Amino acid sequence: MGPASQAPRATRPIGVFDSGVGGLSVLRALRSALPGEDFLYLGDTARLPYGTKSEHTVVRYALQAADELVGREIKCLVIACNTASAAALPALQERYAELPVIGVIEPGARAACAGSVSGRIAVLGTESTVQGGAYTRSILRLRPDAQVLGIACSLFVALAEEGWTDGAVASAAAARYLTPLRAAGPAAPDMVVLACTHFPVLEPVIAAAVGPGMRIVDSAATTAAAVRTELQRRGLLHRVAPEAARPVASRDAPRGRVDFLATDGPARFASVGSRFLGEPIAADEVELIDL
Predict the structure, then answer these.
(1) Out of 74, 125, 176, 191, which could bridge 15 as a Cys pair, Cβ 3.0 to 4.6 Å?
(2) Which residues pair with 192 in a beta bridge?
(3) Which residue of the set 76, 81, 113, 153 is catalytic?
């Protein structure tokens, strides 16, 4: 390839992809855990949502997105999408055996199993994620005695994208979905997994709805921790002095660079994505690509 292929492997960016902008919550967690790293984020916005597609189609889309990122010389691939993690992780790990390939499901399931005293775990996700059962299978594989309750909270996705993450509407939706957990009394779960990349921005209202007796596992944060551990294990962490790190989007911050790719609608990607990333994204910073 070009000159980028000559760069030391540890200095190459980490590739992250999702069907849209929800995966930017994972990118936000990754940047917090790995401030010295550069990132390349791809949102396949032309073909979202993946959750309504067949498994065969999701695998095909995921491989195409990953091919684009791998072709740009990444050192690690993060699948910031629950649907793609459930359907395509084995295929991606087989195709890119030389790279660390990490999805969002296993880290969240592992943290929930480790943190639960009772073994009762609630999984909050979209309807497709809950019905698909990937989190349940991962949890039971790690902890066969667990009792897993899946709750589809599909409206949370729209609330997150509209920016309605607090106030009466968000609180009412959370109460409607989650009050049954509190009503279970002593039999209630003690761990709640946020099994959708849109949900971390709603964590305060979710926490208020479930009450103090349940701990929340943010799969974005657990994925970031898993990526850091794997990069460290492989000697791929990019260690730089804070003063040497490049600014992000012209902000004078001691963090690495982020480049954004989208398959449709750079302006909407930027406006909605800013809510998930927690900082502004300009439309002209988003490169439009075709997969």
Answers:
(1) 74
(2) 122, 216
(3) 81
Q: What are phi and psi of 97, to 5 degrees?
A: -60, -20
> Can you tell me the distance from the alpha carbon of 98 to that of 165, in angstroms, rounded to the nearest whole number?
39
Query: Which residues partner with 288 through β-bridges?
Result: 262
pTM over 0.85: yes
* Residue 76 among the catalytic residues: no
106-219 to CATH, choices 2.60.120.200, 3.40.50.1860, 3.40.50.10070, 3.40.50.720: 3.40.50.1860
CA distances from 96 to 60, 91, 93, 266 (A): 14, 9, 5, 28
248 vs 194: which has the higher pLDDT: 194
Which tens digit of pLDDT belongs to each residue from 22-63?
999 999 999 999 999 999 999 999 999 998 899 999 999 999
Q: Tell whether the model's pLDDT for residue 100 goes beyond 60.
A: yes
User: For the chain, what is the radius of gyration of the CA atoms?
Assistant: 19
Closest C-alpha among 73, 77, 97, 93 to residue 30: 77
Distance CA 196, CA 129 (A): 8
Contact status, residue 222 vs residue 215, Cβ threshold 8 Å: no
Catalytic residue among 76, 113, 153, 196: 196
Q: Helix or strand or coil: residue 245?
A: coil
